[in-house]
Each structure stands twice: as structure tokens, then as C-alpha cells.
Design brief:
By secondary structure, the protein is α+β, with helices and mostly antiparallel strands. It contains 5 helices and 7 strands; from the N terminus they run H-E-E-E-E-H-E-H-H-H-E-E. The protein has one domain (2-164). Helices cover 31% and strands 32% of the residues. A 7-stranded mixed beta sheet has the order 5-1-2-3-4-7-6, sandwiched between helices.
């Protein structure tokens, strides 16, 4: 549990956000939180109807290998990227040369370089006239006193709530 104690902050400052390859309307958030050298991902089902409100429901939290992330990048599933942080992860994988131990090191290196190039050319979405920003915890405390129990945000008059269960089995 201690590895995911800063989950709310990690979700607010992700390394990347991907569209789910298996569940339409769901996203996978790549965080900087790690377990045994693997980054935790948070699978979120977005806009799920819960009574009269839509919620963003956390479906799972688990560590993923860099190779999973490289595949998502190369499959063009990326919707947002901390370009500097994500590039550093990929370049570290290339520099470590651990891929030389794989059954096809040339193919692995090619996929890593392809992902690095996709990150470099990726353009993050702009919203609100380019004024896309994250709320600080102080702003959340002020606007939503119980945000740490159930994080609630509001957009265009519609309330969105993030709920879910934290799974720590690895």
C-alpha cells in the first residue's frame, strides 16, 4: 500500500495517458509510482453512469513493464504525454541495453526508437484556449473539502467523481 500512497498526486501528474486498447471509453494512466522497477498504471472507466451522475471509476492499479508502454505508444493510443519524462524512460531503456538479452534485440531496439520518435513528434491537446492546467491540492482542499476521500471535479455544469478500489496484488 505504501507504494500507491501518493496515487492522487500521481494521477494528476501522469507520465502519459492512453486510450484503452480493450475497453472503449476507458483510459490507462501511466504514473511515476513504481514497484520492482515497473511503473504503476491506473485503468479508469470514464463517464460511467452511477445513479444520476457520471463517474470516472478506477478499475485497477497495477505495475506494467516498459515493453507494454512502448506497444501502446507505437499503436498510437497516447492521448497525453509528459514528453520529457516519458522520453527519459524510453531513452533509459535504450541506454541500459537490456534489450540485447531478448530473443530479437534488433526488433526491440527498433520498437524503442520508434516510440521515442513518436513521443518527440507528439502534440498534447490544448483546451480552454491553451490554458490546460492541473489543480493544486490546496485548490482541491478549498473547492472540495473531501476530495481525498472521493475526488470530485466539475466541468460544464456536470459533476464527475473518481471512485474505485486500490489493488496491490502484483
Amino acid at each position: 500500500m505504501s507504494e500507491v500512497k501518493d496515487l492522487v498526486s500521481a494521477i494528476q501528474k501522469p507520465l502519459a495517458v492512453f486510450r484503452s486498447a480493450t475497453h472503449i471509453g476507458s483510459n490507462v494512466i501511466l504514473t511515476e509510482l513504481k514497484h520492482d522497477g515497473k511503473n504503476f498504471v491506473v485503468a479508469i472507466e470514464t463517464n460511467r453512469q452511477a445513479g444520476k451522475i457520471n463517474v470516472n471509476s478506477i478499475r485497477s492499479i497495477h505495475p506494467r513493464t516498459t515493453s507494454n508502454v512502448i506497444e501502446w505508444i507505437n499503436e498510437d493510443l497516447m492521448d497525453y504525454a509528459d514528453k520529457e519524462g516519458l522520453t527519459a524512460c524510453v531513452l533509459d531503456k535504450i541506454k541500459s541495453r537490456h534489450y540485447l538479452n531478448s530473443s530479437d534485440p534488433a526488433d526491440v531496439r527498433k520498437r524503442l526508437l520508434s516510440a521515442a520518435n513518436k513521443i518527440k513528434s507528439f502534440e498534447n491537446p490544448k483546451q480552454n484556449g491553451g490554458n490546460l492546467r492541473l489543480r493544486t491540492s490546496e485548490e482541491l482542499d478549498r473547492d472540495y473539502p473531501n476530495w481525498n476521500d472521493t475526488q470530485t471535479t466539475s466541468k460544464g455544469g456536470h459533476s464527475t467523481q473518481i471512485t474505485g478500489t486500490v489493488s496491490t496484488s502484483v
